[in-house]
Hints:
The protein has one domain. By secondary structure, it is mainly alpha-helical. The protein is elongated and about 55 Å long. The chain has helices spanning 2-20, 25-60, 81-116. Helices cover 78% and strands 0% of the residues.
Amino acid sequence: xxxxALVGLIVAALAAFGALFKLEVESLLExxxxxxxxxxxxxxxxxxxxxxxxxxxxxxSGQLERGWFWHPIKLNRLLEPAQRRRVMPWCYSGALGFFxxxxxxxxxxxxxVKISL
Length: 117
């Protein structure tokens, strides 16, 4: 079932990417810039809060590893259920902001390709 969902997401992403080619270059640049800015404005603060909460939870349980900051996602499995309920919404929110940034970059890539053609 997960595989089917993944294939569906890939097909939807390719269709959306293709649909971007119907927009004018100026619109793509504007859309891309605003999407990146909004994604960063939302995603960076939420990711910061996620890292603070994850560090506090891992430190409280004595499981804070050296260099934890470079690969924090793998440490989510160490959280207790109560800690997960507090930390993970911030993780997902930060990931959503990152996704918005990537979507904005896709708009800019399409604009660059259209200019090159």
